[in-house]
Amino acid sequence: MIKSLRIRNLATIEELELELENGLSILTGETGAGKSIIIDAIRLILGDKGSPDYIRTGRTEASVEAVFEAPKMAARLKDLGLEDGEELFVQRQISGTGPGKAHINGVLVPVRKLKEAGTAVADIYGQNDHVFLLHLENHLIYLDAFLDAGALRGEVSRAALELKSALLQKQELESKSRERVQRLDFLAYQVREIEGAGLRPGEDEELAQNREILKNAEKIAGLIDQALDLSYAQEESILPLLTKFKNVLKELIPYYPSLESSGPSVEEFGIALRELSHGLMKFKDGNTGTPEDLEVIEGKLNIIDKLKRKYGPGIPEILSYLEGIKAEEKALVAGRERLEGLEEEIVGKFKDYVAKAGKLAAVRVRGARKLSALMEKEIAILGMNKAAFKVEVRTNAPALEDPATIREGGTEEVEFLISPNPGEELRPLRKIASGGELSRVMLSLKSIGKEAEAARTLIFDEIDSGIGGRAADFIAGKLEALSRKHQVICITHLPQIAAAAAHQFRIDKRFEKERTYTTVRKLQGGERAEEIARLISGTRISEASLQTAREMLASARSGKKKTGSGSDS
């Protein structure tokens, strides 16, 4: 709610400050006194477009400041970094030389931020204030709240989101279908290429060693022959000489007993030399490769080198890459299978959405008829007794071919239509209703609505235009009832509405030194009776009109006591 409002140099207002409270506050005063300027100031603080024409003559800047009590669960305010229960301090400057400035809690913000914050805390209902009516989604939300259809709407929303998610998956899979086929072909080629090489860890090193052996086969054979000659093949080779050496040692042992311990070492050396010679002979026999064998090895090494250049620096890395692409290949195949299964899943989800949306549509159509009839009665009571009102429900059939028709809010569009005069066709309320009619329609909607919203400020302008008598009494009652949940501010010329208020302010205009000044003051006690008497009889206040005013205030106080609502009058 608005706790305080300060206006400086705006039109005929030089400086003015209002302290506002909960309940119904009424602004009264002579025609042209400046009541509408106060509403304009509130519009500015809520983000409406400003103009240098607002600035008081002789000044270069106009400003409006307001302190709001931030309502609980106001998501837009939380987006601005404010928590529940905090005050919201808003400033707006209109400059004659520039675009002006806006601040929220001392922080400079774009003017659009004022509008974002403003829609969270206040609504103005008058000729040029169609924010609620301009957006047809608001009509639909209102109808669903009126019908307590939130749970069913939630089911439809979830079904729509699940279906949209499946459709998006399908779209993504289809868009990648061609890429997937190309990728699968490429991966299959790589798998064949690597697997065809039949690689095993360490094979490249083994092949390189064999290649060197085959390249130097003749040299190796000569060296082996030399080694075998030296070990045993020739008469003066190591093994025959070693045998002679052992025999000599045997003859020396009787003379040199310590030599006996050397016998095993000589024997072991002989055994080792024979094993080494045997190994050399086997190596020679096993490496009798041909030039063709060398070509095979060279060919395999060339294949391995090629794979290394493409897939990794060594055989372990190549085999690791192979495992990776086989896993990718498996995932791509699974994606293709997922696309096939998704088609059936989408059909099922679409049927579920259609069923739930159809159930919600039926509830809305029945509820629209009920709300239409109720609204006609309400606006008739408020002075529009010849007006026709209809809540029009248009259903758009959903189609899988057009995802835009699958909407979280269901398949309906809802719009409020009105025919102010008999014989005229029903037309959109937002386009043809006058300021007073709009205010009274919004008062009716707010009075019978069930929106789960936090307390906010509702400002009604021109609500009493063209009405009087019983209709004025009913409007007064509706405003007072609405003020039990919201802060309500209303400009009025009707004594019935003024008497119903908890707080009343009088707007006056005075002329001083060839300047016009608009002032405001809160009325107390007998002042209220005098102001209401003026509304009854004009400038000539009689004792009869004063008595009537007192009786109206007393009646209003009595009614509030019965309902538990307080007043300051």
Summarize, please.
With 569 residues, the protein is α/β, with parallel strands linked by helices. The protein is 55% helix and 17% strand.
Large-scale geometry:
elongated
The parts where pLDDT drops under 50 for at least 5 residues are none
Strand content: 15-25%
Category from helices, strands and their pairing: alpha/beta
The order of strands across the largest sheet is 2-1-4-5-6-7
**Helix fraction?**
55-70%
Largest sheet geometry: 6 strands, antiparallel
- Overall mean pLDDT stands at 84
Number of separate helices: 19
Kindly state the number of beta strands: 15
Describe the structure.
With 569 residues, this protein is α/β, with parallel strands linked by helices. The chain has a domain at 181-330. Helix content is 55%, strand content 17%. It has 19 helices and 15 strands. The strands form 3 sheets. A 6-stranded antiparallel β-sheet has the order 2-1-4-5-6-7, with helices on one face. Strands 8-12-13-3-14-15 form a 6-stranded mixed β-sheet. The longest helix is centred in the middle third of the chain and has 67 residues, at 315-381. It starts with a strand and ends in a 6-residue tail after the last helix.
